[in-house]
Amino acid sequence: MLKLRMLSVLLLAAPAVMAQDNLGEMFGKDSVRRDPVIATFKSTRIINGQSNETLSKGDLDFRVAHRFGDIGGSGGGSSTFFGLDNSTDIRIAFEYGITDRLTAGISRTKGSGNFSQMYEILGKFKVLQQTMDNRIPVGVTVFGNAVVTGMKSSPEKSDVNYFDSFSSRMSYTAQAIISRKFGDIISLAVLPTYVHRNRVGYKDMNNMFALGMGGRLRFSKRVALVVDYFVPFRDEESKDYYETRGIKFYNSLGVGVEIETGGHVFHMNFTNSTAVLENQFIPETVTTWTQGQFRWGFNISRRFSLGK
Amino acid sequence: MQAHTTPTHKSMKRLLINLILLTGCGLAACTSEQAPEPVTPSSCASVDIKSARVYTIVQENCTNRSCHPGTGSPLIADFSTLARLKSYITTNGATWTLRVTGQNADMPQSQSFPPLSRATRDSIACWVSNGMPD
Q1: Structural domain includes residue A28
Q2: What digits encode the pLDDT tens for the residues A6-46?
Q3: A27 within domain boundaries
Q4: Which domain holds residue A152?
Q5: Total domain count, chain A
Q6: Could you say which of B8, B30, B35 has the minimum Cβ distance to residue A201?
Q7: Which domain CATH number covers A268?
Q8: What spatial distance separates the first Cα and last Cα of chain B, rounded to whole Å?
Q9: Minimum distance, in Å, between the CA of residue A219 and any CA atom of chain B
Q10: Binding-face residues of B in 13-32 toward A, CB within 8 A
Q11: Does residue B28 sit in helix, strand or coil?
Q12: Up-side HSE of residue A257: CA atoms within 13 Å toward CB?
C-alpha cells in the first residue's frame, strides 16, 4: 500500500520536475518563448474523461453533466422513452482557474455505482504544453480528486455501503493526461489513471489502475466528434468472483458530438457507463453497449470571466 | 542547472510545491478496507427479519428515484406501500425471486442504484420464505 501511495505521488511529481527543466529552457536559456499549441480540446472534459485543458486565470466554469437511463435492454425501450424517463447520474460543478495552468473545483454528483450523494474536490495542473515548433511534442496535465459520499450507512457489515468511519466514505483519482494535437483536425490523449477507493465490496479492489484513451476529430470550426475509452485493470480473482454473482464489469466507451457556441461548449454523447466521476465509471461500470445498456448524456459548460 | 529568478518561475515553483503537498495530505487519508464475505444463511428459520426492515430496503433501492412508485413506468410493479409490495410478491413470486433475490438477480437496474448485496438478497428471500412477517 505504501508503495502504491509513493507511486501515486511520484506520478504527480515526476512530470512537474520535468516541467521545471522545460520552463528553464523556455524562460532562461533561450529567452525566446515558444508558441504553445492551444485548443487541443475545446473543453476540460473529453466525454467522461479529462482533457488536457485547464481554465484561464480568473475563469469560472459552471458545468452540468447528465446521463439518462439505458436506451435498450430490459431497463430501456419505449416504456422509459428509451431511457429519457430515468437519470443514472447528474453532476453539477464549479471549477475555477487559479492560474492559466492550475484549476480547482468542487462538485456535487448524484453518483451511480456502489455509492451515491457524492461530493468532490478536484485539482488539475498543466505541467507541459505542446509547442508549435515540436520542441515539446506532447502536453502533460495532471488531475486529482477526492470524493466523499454522504449516503446513509447500511446496517449490514457485508454491504459495501456500510460505513464505520468517515474515511470509509472516501475515494480518490490520480491521472496524467498526455495529449497531442495533430494539425488542426485531430487531437489524441492517453490517460494513465489510478483510482483508490477506501472501502470496497468483498473481493473488489481498493487500488485500481486503468488506461484511458481519447480523441477529437474536428468537422468544422464549431463541431467535432469526440471519443473516449477506459480499460480498468481488474484482477482475475475479482472478475471471477463477481461473475459467479452475476455481475460482469465492462470498459467504458463514450462517443459524442461537441458543439461550441461562444462561451458554451455543449457535448451530446452516448456512453455505456452510468456514472460521471472517474472514481465510479472506471472501476464500477457493469453495463455494456452490446445489451443496449448505453445512454444519451450531455455535458454543458458555461464560463464566466471573473478576473477581468 | 542555472538558477532562474523571474516572478513567473517563482510562482510556478510555489504552486507545484503546494500541489505536491496537497496530494500528499490527501493520500495520507487513504485507507484500504474490504467488506467481509456475505454470509448465506443455511436455513431461514434462524433469520429474524421483519417487514419494516425489508420495506426500508425497498424504499431506498426501488422507489425513491421514481422507479416502482405506483404511477408512471414501470406500472406493473407497484411498491408504493408495504401492502402493495406484499401483494406483488404474492402474485409474482417467481418474477420476484428471479429478478430480486435469485443468483442472477438484476434488480435494481443500473439507474444509479448500487446492486443489492448477497446478504441483503438472502435476507429478503428469508423474509418471503418466512411468510413476510411484520
Answers
A1: no
A2: 445 444 444 444 444 455 455 555 545 679 999 899 999 99
A3: no
A4: 37-296
A5: 1
A6: B35
A7: 2.40.160.40
A8: 77
A9: 33
A10: 13, 15-16, 19-20, 22-24, 26-27, 29-32
A11: helix
A12: 9
Copy the grid coordinates of residue A133. 515548433
- Alpha-helix residue ranges (DSSP H) falling in chain A: 2-23, 236-244, 278-281
Burial class (CB in 10 A: 0-12, 13-18, 19+), A236: exposed
Q: Which of A115, A49, A62, A4 is nearest to A278 (CA)?
A: A49
SS3 state of residue B118: helix
Contact A102 B15 (CB under 8 A): yes
**Per-residue pLDDT of chain B in tens (134 residues, 90 and over written 9):** 444 456 666 666 676 677 666 666 666 678 889 988 876 656 777 777 888 888 988 888 887 766 776 665 555 677 888 888 888 888 777 778 878 887 667 788 755 667 788 788 888 888 888 888 88
User: Is A11 strand, coil or helix?
Assistant: helix
Question: C-alpha angle A290/A292/A296, rounded to 5°?
Answer: 120
Q: Which is it for the CA torsion B41, B43, B46, B48, positive or negative?
A: positive
| A186-197 and A170-182 strand pairing | antiparallel
Cβ–Cβ under 8 Å, residues B89 and B113: no
Q: Does any domain span residue A235? A: yes
The ipTM, to two decimals, is 0.73
CA distance A12 to A143: 8
Cβ neighbourhood burial of B75 (10 Å; 0-12, 13-18, 19+): exposed
Length of chain A: 308
Residue type, B11: S
Cβ–Cβ below 8 Å for A116 and B106: no
Does residue A307 belong to any structural domain of this protein?
no
Of A215, A154, A43, residue with least CA distance to B36 = A154
* Domain ranges across chain B: 44-129
Please classify residue B86 by burial: count the beta carbons closer than 10 Å to its beta carbon, then call 0-12 exposed, 13-18 middle and 19+ buried: middle
Check B112 against A8: CB less than 8 A apart: no
